[in-house]
Each structure stands twice: as structure tokens, then as C-alpha cells.
Amino acid sequence: MPKPEALSLHSTAHATPVGGVVAVHVTGMLDATTREEFSGYLDSVADDQGPSLILDMAGVTFMDSRALGLIVHHWQRATAAGGDFALVGVQYPSSKVMWVTGLSQRLPLYDTLDEALAAFAAAGERG
What we know:
Elements: E1 5-8, E2 11-18, E3 21-30, H1 35-49, E4 53-63, H2 65-80, E5 85-88, H3 96-100, E6 109-110, H4 113-126
Parallel strand pairs: 3-4, 4-5, 5-6
Antiparallel strand pairs: 1-2, 2-3
């Protein structure tokens, strides 16, 4: 499992196993200054742990369009590899770009980790 990583002076990410998948807990700002480090961290998690991924965004204080593009890339990567993907704890005030672009209607958003894991389990039963 990749070690927790400081993405900048104001952002961190750390991965933990949860219900057979990996949850990456993100705190702080996701923007142009953290994009490369965040991308590398998510790549490392996916390479080490498999394609299924939950991003816990409850601690995110700001997200710009570059970070949103990176999240979309990892959503596509996970699903193309047969994995599951979810965002949990997304807050409108810190992630407005997700609503402005309409992606809040397309990305798999859940309030809690338990809700995301239940959705993964239900999808596995159907699939």
C-alpha cells in the first residue's frame, strides 16, 4: 500500500483497505499545484491494489477543473479494467466545479463509504 503522501503544504492523501477495495482519503486542496502528485499517488494505488477505488473527498477544501479531469480519468480507468469506482463525502462548497460541469450527475457519488461498498456489492450480484 502506498504511504500517505503530502501533495503540497496544504493537501494529503492516504490509502486504506475497506471491504475488499482501497479507499483513498484526501484532505486539503486539489488543484494545479497538487495534480501531478495526486495523479502519481492514484496510479500507484491502482497498480498496487487493483482497479477498484473509492475516493473519500470529505476532507477536500477546494477542487479545480484539472483535479476533476484527473478524477474522471481514474473513474474511466477503473471501470475499463472491470473495477468499481466511487466518490464519497463530496461537498458542494469545495467541489462546485463538479456541479457546474454536470459531472455530479454522471460520477458515482455516495454520502458514505458504507453506501459505496453496498453499491459495489449490489453491482457484483447483478454482474
